Amino acid sequence: MEPLDDKNLKALVSLLSDDDNEVLNHVEKQILSLGGTLIPYLESEWGNNLDSNVQKRIEDLIHVLQFGQVKAKILEWKNSEKRDLLEGFWILATYQYPDLELEKLKAELEQLFYEVWVEIKITEDLPFDKVRAFNAAFFNKLKFSANTKNFHSINNSMINLVLETRKGNPISLCVVYMLIAQKLKMPIWGVNLPNLFILTYKTPELQFYINAFNKGLIFTKEDISNYVTHLRLKNNDIFFEPCNNLDIIRRVLRNMMVSFDKVDNQEKLEEIRQIIESLRDDTDAGF
Known about the structure:
The chain is α+β, with helices and mostly antiparallel strands. It has helices at 6-14, 21-33, 39-48, 52-78, 85-93, 102-120, 127-141, 159-165, 170-183, 221-230, 245-262, 266-279, and strands at 145-146, 167-168, 188-193, 196-202, 207-211, 217-219.
């Protein structure tokens, strides 16, 4: 569709005050067909309009357009070669914070990286010592901690809020920990355990595990095997080996669904379900 000039856009938006449902449906479809580029104009019109009904209709249209942008961006991310984890988390955060900028998150992580690097740069290259020094910097100096009080809050899945409050759930704490560790050239990756997301330090010579939700507790493959047995599940390579970034993003989305279900926000729960469906493939572990 040809872009409309300001005069025609204003005339189109003015029709949102019409009480005829047929007219309203036509106008809303036309606005939505113009896509996300119309969002700034709609936001401006919302501020200039004193009719609460029209404001509500504009709010709903903006949300639909923004949701469409999130779906398109995360699908583009999935189909990209890189699948940068921070970018994926940023896209999910724009579902709640559409104005959030990726560059802002990158700058915050760069600062955290520097603060950790200062603490561990003189540490010997022994893996366990390196991880313990990282834990001291991450949990004691930077004050990252488990959000046990509001475990199911949607804030735990929003990386901008995790960086701001220094609190998160198992997967968001692991992701921040991992992003910083990897910038430090530490071979640390996420592991998709049932009911708990953890990290693994893995080289050809050595592998152990880290629980970022428990202040970086270090444990072994045998501990994981015992945990899986306790859950009455069969051992699976997925429980012991690094997962990919798509698995991480899908697991965050499932956490978001739980968060919206807990507060009975069925509309947002359904929208997140739609995003999950768009990312589904045969490798989805389902945890």
